Known about the structure:
The protein has 14 helices and 15 strands. It is an alpha/beta fold. The chain folds into two domains: 3-178, 3-Layer(aba) Sandwich (Rossmann fold), CATH 3.40.50; 191-385, 3-Layer(aba) Sandwich (Rossmann fold). The strands form three sheets. It has a six-stranded parallel β-sheet, sandwiched between helices. A six-stranded parallel β-sheet has the order 9-8-7-13-14-15, with helices on both faces. Strands 11-10-12 form a three-stranded antiparallel β-sheet. It starts with 17 loop residues before the first strand and ends in a 5-residue tail after the last helix. The mean pLDDT is 94.
Amino acid sequence: MPLRKKKTVEDIDVRGKRVLVRVDFNTPLTEDRSKVADDKRITAALPTIEYLLAQGAKVILVSHLGRPKGVVNPQFSLAPVALRLSELLPGTKVVFAHDTVGESAKSAIAAMNDGEIVLLENVRFHKEETDNDPAFARQLADLAELYVSDAFGTVHRAHASTVGVAAYLPAVAGYLIRKEISVMGEALLRPTRPFVAILGGAKVKDKIAVIRNLLDKCDSLLIGGGMAYTFLKARGYGIGNSILDEDSLELARELMAEAEAHKVDLMLPVDDVVAQEFSADAAFQTVPSDQIPEGWCGMDIGAKTAEMYAKVIKEAGTVIWNGPMGVFEMPNFSNGTKRVAEACAACKGVTIIGGGDSASAVKKLGLASQMTHISTGGGASLEFLEGKELPGIAVLDEK
């Protein structure tokens, strides 16, 4: 999905125009819901917002927060986000509209001067948003003259604010989307070799399409997390009470055969940290991967596997990582994910973290600044790695 064929904010004249920008301000809030607890998603959108302001646009921001399921719920209001945005942009007028397409939004927009911002209330207070209802998309579009898509975390969803509005307005990509697609696209199309893919997570079927898409591109494929046990079982190993995606056993055998045919080194754990039960304080031990005791469950890759994986990662020219190596939120079972993250940080090549839990782990370990790119979209980056066309990108205007 080459973005170079799609128009970006730099390809249109925005001066004096009302520009509707789809951002991803789905940020965690404090316990009392009065303040933003983590503003990373807001700061990720600033380059596009600041460019539009500098060009003299009237910037209308639309986002969702949480899952209010089409019902107005103050718990999911974007009011705290408007407050944080105004703090991040001192000197810029930021007005919060208390509805999305109603009178508050219309009057706030009518009163705008060039270089000002209106943040609309949570777009998912309307069920028509997730239904991609054409009439609602038209109401959103009627607020503006141009549309900028800059919420990568939502472009895999065909919603009114990500896809529908593009039927009524000139539609272009913002800087965040440009970066996401160009960095990951370049890695998939023209990777510096060796190209190493690291996949974790629980179920094989969740990553089938990713594995298939990467098998004719990468040099090594490192498997960890819960799905490793399906592959180990497919090899004929006993896996005790470890998580098993039983429906995918035959598929795991096929994927291993495909990897061999493509001369891809598909690496599985050689040792595992296993526990007597799925619990943070359960008794645990490290055993060879072909000797997991009955009644025990795999919780993390072992130290030998972590070392083996780290060596391959450090020597890579390109690394893409999606999914933790174990139950990293439990301290006793976090070492595999930690070692992989440290190896990515030490790698001199391009390192791309594909959103979701991998991104959370890297940030938690304080290694985010040492990665080339951390995707802001878990589901979107996964579908991109699968080679799927993302609906929110497909609708953007061609150059």
